[in-house]
Specification:
Layout (H helix, E strand, L loop, with lengths): L1 H18 L6 H5 L13 E2 L5 E8 L2 E8 L5 E7 L8 E6 L5 E10 L5 E9 L4 E4 L6 E5 L5 E6 L2 E6 L5 E3 L9 E3 L4 H6 L6 E3 L5 E8 L5 E6 L7 E6 L9 E8 L4 E4 L12 E3 L5 E7 L5 E8 L5 E8 L11 E2 L5 E5 L6 E5 L5 E3 L7 E8 L4 E6 L8 E6 L5 E3 L6 E6 L5 E8 L2 E9 L4 E6 L2 H7 L7 E7 L4 E7 L10 E7 L14 H12 L3 E5 L9 H5 L7 H16 L3 E11 L1 H12 L6 E5 L10 H8 L6 H5 L13 E7 L8 H12 L5 E5 L11 H16 L1
Parallel strand pairs: 38-39, 38-40, 40-41, 41-42, 42-43
Antiparallel strand pairs: 1-2, 2-3, 3-4, 5-6, 6-7, 7-8, 9-10, 10-11, 11-12, 13-15, 14-15, 15-18, 16-17, 18-19, 20-21, 21-22, 22-23, 24-25, 25-26, 26-27, 28-29, 29-30, 30-31, 32-33, 33-34, 34-35, 36-37, 37-39
Helix pairs in contact: 7-8
């Protein structure tokens, strides 16, 4: 009897424990931020290759700490805010000799990547702190000797000698919406990821910089409300598809001569997306590109007189993606990556134009980490374990011996030490939060820095099901996908399907990686009886150039076909209700969900489009023309696949969401979509977030947005 009683009590305990698992709420997601695992902040390898630094914050105390690579132990605190009254630090950089720190504080966002800040200079050895300037400036950067700092203020480039306090104004013609020196215009920032547009030479004798003349670029204006009696206007230069760009020039400023030299090239390039100094302090490399972005010249310029020559030219029948894998080697040659054999691979090139292909195969090199010239070993990450995974490899340049360094299948992301003796690895899967570990360069694990065990234990409190990865086979392609099923899933039932997508060129939403807060929103929908799925259509990354670039000149066409066919496939499964399929996306995903609910009106019964492009004629020229050419060259490509031209097909429930201060995808896209829908007498739902940009966040905004979307789904799907 006693044993029976014990057994019943145990069963009762197990049942009650299971019953205690609770559902996820919107408050968990966007007010309490329950689903935020730990990560390593401010990781930076130090010069000796034996130490690294991190930035940590406990309560109101900020510290920059030096650690040993071999065991992760703390060596010393390099900076602590307990000694100084200093605002919250956003980031830090060392001088080349690591005797000083440049601390970025009070950062004010401008656009997605650009900002201005108050900077402080901290001398580690004297324990002295001083402000760089009373003004908020942009992109403050130490000179190689650490005695000067270059920065941008009000569109002009300055150099401050921090020993004597002298400030030299390098340019003087900077003017808002006309001339920019040392920083980028809007479209270079957004589409070439070029923000700080100046570079010190290795010896500190020269400063190469960009000059943007925006005078002929047309202006875009946004009303900002901010609770005032009258709205104000934000007016900025934004070149839309087919419109004029900034005139961009490269100059080299000589510190000794106090003089700038213009680098005149024989060709008149539309774009100059990158500059980089070689190991020779008198040589600057410039990327020169045509407007269609399918031809790139590699230009070598002399700093002393501005003379230059094209070393080689790379062409592509579609387009060329700009990258930062250019690495100059001590031997005088350099690393280059290219898709010219159909997949992104590593090449070693010489200045005489010759080259050797280092990696080969039907897989992509996703990251180049460096070359150990002593050991003749190269380190890179690739998709060799499948396009949804990333693994780390070493390859010997002399013997071609190759070794995989990571042992777990998922997304591995490595950050190497100077000299490549050690690396920190971040590993996650679709169902496992990130784990951070230290390793020797041979892959041997030295220490677990953070395994998020507390976070994983906490997740056991919630009703969470595993994300399943699968291949959706259509007549046209095999597409990567993931699916989340409801708890207590029953194959004999029919469930509504909610699809999420992005789908833009070279992107991937289907990766074997941790999904952060959005992942738990999908889990919340699953708890409410929905199957949630995501499909990477043709045009996305990880599968080679042809798969990625086959959407050229026809953005939206094949992507929509794939999403419709994927929805039909899901709808054929016995446990999915084919009459209850919804789809949602943001930005390019909003464009795609709008096409899905119109072109695919017989398949999709609901769509949510957040900050969508509705006509590619309204979007910026660098991005759009890379994939579509100009509207003048390819009018049908623009018009036939713009949702705004298919509104008459709408049958289902459609929610449009946009921030009124979106500098990226302008609210104009949604306004024109509204006009087209009204003209066709189509009913829809709309929500505008005043003064919010493309990210639609700040204050209570994210909670409000996700409640809006959740309620819309629960009511209509």
């Amino acid at each position: 009897m006693k044993k029976l009683l014990t057994l019943l009590l145990s069963l009762l305990f197990i049942t009650s424990t299971f019953a205690q698992k609770r559902d996820i709420t919107l408050e968990d997601l966007w007010q309490n931020y329950t689903f935020s695992p730990s990560y390593i902040r401010g990781f930076n390898s130090m010069n000796d290759g034996e130490h690294y630094s991190t930035m940590e914050r406990v309560d109101n105390v900020q510290e920059i700490i030096k650690h040993q690579f071999k065991d992760g132990k703390k060596v010393r605190i390099l900076f602590s805010s307990t000694k100084f009254e200093i605002p919250r630090i956003k980031s830090y950089t060392f001088s080349d000799d690591e005797k000083q720190l440049l601390l970025q504080t009070e950062t004010e966002k401008i656009y997605r990547h650009s900002s201005k800040s108050i900077y402080y200079i901290y001398n580690i050895f004297t324990d002295k702190l001083k402000k760089l300037s009373d003004d908020k400036v942009m992109y403050a950067t130490f000179s190689p000797a650490g005695d000067k700092i270059a920065y941008v203020f009000e569109n002009n480039l300055y150099i401050k000698d921090i020993i004597i306090g002298k400030v030299t104004q390098v340019t003087s013609d900077g003017k808002k919406n006309h001339i920019i020196n040392g920083a980028s215009d809007w479209v270079y920032e957004e589409e070439f990821a070029l923000v700080r547009s100046f570079e010190w030479s290795a010896n500190g004798d020269y400063l190469a910089y960009y000059r943007f003349d925006e005078s002929e670029v047309k202006e875009f204006s946004m009303d900002l409300f901010k609770g005032g009696l009258y709205p104000t206007q934000d007016v900025f230069k934004y070149p839309k598809a087919g419109e004029e760009n900034s005139v961009v020039k490269i100059y080299i400023y000589s510190i000794k001569a106090d003089k700038s030299t213009f680098i005149y090239t024989e060709k008149d390039y539309e774009y100059l997306p990158r500059i980089k100094w070689t190991n020779n302090p008198d040589e600057l490399v410039i990327f020169g590109m045509n407007r269609n972005q399918n031809e790139l010249d590699f230009i070598v310029a002399n700093a002393t007189d501005g003379s230059n020559a094209v070393l080689f030219t790379e062409t592509d029948k579609y387009y060329i993606d700009i990258h930062d894998n250019l690495t100059f080697l001590p031997e005088g040659n350099f690393i280059w990556t290219s898709e010219k054999d159909g997949f992104n691979h590593i090449y070693i090139k010489d200045f005489d134009g010759s080259e050797i292909q280092i990696t080969k195969g039907n897989w992509e090199v996703t990251d180049f980490h460096g070359v150990d010239s002593d050991k003749m070993e190269i380190y890179y990450s690739s998709t060799e374990d499948g396009s949804i995974n990333r693994s780390l490899y070493m390859q010997n340049l002399e013997t071609d011996e190759k070794r995989k360094l990571t042992t777990e299948i998922g997304i591995n992301s490595a950050s190497f030490s100077k000299g490549l003796k050690y690396y920190m690895n971040s590993f996650s899967t679709g169902n496992v939060a990130p784990k951070f570990t230290l390793h020797q360069s041979d892959g041997n694990q030295l220490k677990v820095l953070e395994d998020n065990s507390e976070f994983n234990t906490k997740m056991e409190e919630f009703n969470i099901t595993e994300k399943e990865f699968l291949i959706v086979k259509t007549e046209d392609a095999e597409l990567n996908a993931w699916m989340i099923k409801p708890p207590n899933f029953d194959e004999s039932r029919e469930y509504p399907l909610y699809m999420f997508l992005y789908g833009g060129p070279g992107s991937q939403q289907v990766t074997n990686s941790f999904g952060w807060t959005n992942y738990y929103w999908y889990q919340m929908l699953a708890q409410n009886g929905y199957i949630v799925a995501c499909v990477d259509n043709r045009g996305t990354g990880g599968k080679g150039a042809e798969f990625k670039k086959m959407t050229y000149k026809e953005l939206g066409k094949f992507e929509t076909i794939d999403q419709i066919n994927a929805a039909k496939y899901f709808g054929s499964l016995p446990y999915i209700n084919a009459n209850r399929i919804g789809i949602q996306g943001w930005s390019y995903g909003g464009y795609m969900s709008s096409l899905a609910i119109t072109k695919g009106a017989d398949v999709f019964s609901l769509a949510i489009a957040v900050a969508p492009v509705t006509n590619w004629r309204y979007y910026d020229n660098i991005y759009t023309e890379r994939y579509m050419q100009t509207p003048q060259e390819n009018p049908s490509g623009y018009d036939e696949n713009s949702p705004i031209n298919h509104v008459e097909k709408l049958k289902g429930d459609y929610l449009l969401v946009h921030g009124s201060a979106d500098d990226n995808v302008h609210v104009q896209n949604t306004m024109e979509m509204i006009s087209a829908l009204v003209k066709e007498n189509k009913q829809f739902d709309l929500f505008i977030y005043p003064d919010k940009n493309h990210g639609i966040y700040g204050g209570n905004t994210r909670y409000h947005l996700y409640k809006k979307m959740t309620d819309f789904i629960l009511k209509n799907l």
